[in-house]
Write a structure and sequence with these properties.
The chain has about 350 residues and is α/β, with parallel strands linked by helices. It has helices at about 30-40, 55-65, 75-80, 95-105, 120-135, 145-155, 190-205, 300-315, 325-340; strands spanning about 20-25, 45-50, 65-70, 85-90, 110-115, 135-140, 165-170, 210-220, 225-235, 245-250, 260-265, 265-270, 280-285, 290-295. It has two domains: about 20-140, Rossmann fold (3-Layer(aba) Sandwich), CATH 3.40.50; about 145-295 and about 330-340, Dihydrodipicolinate Reductase, domain 2. The radius of gyration is 20 Å and the shape is globular.
Length: about 350
């Protein structure tokens, strides 16, 4: 009987006197967007990339990597690279559990694209695995680290809108029929997991976990969801004894207006189109409306990288801005919604 391999020793804090060295697992569109934002930061660099096609990996590091960056033809080789501090997992979410586990087993810190996994059970399993090994893990929900969203949170927390009563958010686009991850069940195709997660996260950030969920949606003939909406009731009765409600929608079939708002007794905040990576918002009180601009680096991916670096340099294995417990709560909520919509099985 073979001996059980020893668990990797958690990495020491990343020194502050050198760049954070990133490995990129999967080299599709989202990986390129992330790498372009990394290039705007002085203390980050892509030192390796892994793809099932070694030429794609080499082309990726030629465009985005450091001078001596390596391109690998397998994810296993990437995870084993001793120069990589943290792996950005950019594969379709149907592969996230397998790919993130591979990296954790190799002793690597992991920033994994959303949705973290296909369901709450596998999400909890991945979180427990990272905690058992003492390794950093976070879901790459870049909206949570966006400076605009954080300022909205601050204002709401400071009572700028009075007692909250309503959150509204919706996100939609027409999905390219050639993008396999959006249409192939074995890759985890789901409008909720791909884009509905943003309205849900926005409501969760401001109102917390709901106690009541009423959802409906449309299914593709192959059984996955392509559009949906939900009304959520949250805890938090104020002086009026009425709980706040969020109204959310998502679709990969139509160009919706992609806006969000949060309203209270003293005013409201409106966030314009593509609310999940905004650069400004409008604060409305009575007849007065003030548009507030907040500096954002690049498209906004850089801010999650900055947060990961701060954690790794401080030796922290979890992020306050990308909290794992909240990630699992959102997965539990998405499980409930998918069941109500009629999605019974997933890849």
């Amino acid at each position: 009987m073979s001996p059980t391999p020893a668990a990797p020793v958690p990495a020491a804090p990343v020194p502050a006197d050198r760049p954070l060295r990133w490995g990129v697992l999967a080299t599709g569109k989202i990986a390129g967007s992330f790498a372009r934002d990394l290039a705007l930061l002085d203390d980050h660099e892509v030192v390796a990339a892994g793809s099932r096609d070694v030429e794609r990996a080499r082309a990726f590091v030629a465009e985005h990597g450091s001078a001596d960056a390596r391109g690998y033809g397998s994810y296993e080789e990437l995870a084993a690279d001793p120069e990589v501090d943290v792996v950005y997992v950019a594969s379709p979410h149907g592969r996230h559990l397998e790919d993130a586990t591979l990296c954790l087993d190799a002793g690597k810190a992991v920033l994994c694209e959303k949705a973290l996994t296909l369901d709450a059970a596998s999400g909890r399993r991945l979180v427990e695995h990272a905690r058992e090994r003492g390794l950093f893990l976070a879901e790459a929900m870049w909206m949570r680290t966006n400076p605009v969203i954080r300022e909205v949170q601050r204002l709401v927390g400071d009572g700028a809108l009075g007692e909250l009563g309503e959150v509204r958010a919706e996100l939609g686009f027409v999905a390219d029929p050639d993008v396999a991850r959006l249409w192939e069940p074995e890759l985890g195709a789901s409008a909720l997991l791909d884009i509905g997660i943003y309205p849900l996260t926005f409501a969760h950030l401001l109102l917390g976990q709901p106690h009541t969920v009423a959802a409906a949606g449309a299914l593709h003939e192959r059984g996955f969801d392509v559009a949906g909406g939900a009304t959520l009731v949250h805890d938090g009765c104020g002086d009026r004894g009425v709980e706040p409600v969020s109204s959310l929608a998502w679709t990969q079939l139509a160009q919706s207006d992609n806006t969000a708002s949060v309203a209270g007794t003293e005013g409201r905040i409106e966030i314009g189109r593509r609310f999940h990576h905004p650069t400004s918002f409008t604060l409305v009180r009575g007849d007065d409306a003030e548009t507030i601009d907040v500096p954002v680096i690049g498209r906004g991916y850089a801010h999650e990288a900055v947060e990961v670096a701060a954690c790794l340099r401080a030796g922290r294995t979890e992020s306050d801005l990308l909290p794992l417990d909240a990630t699992v709560q959102l997965q539990e909520l998405m499980d409930t919604i998918l069941e109500q919509v009629g999605v019974r099985t997933r890849a």
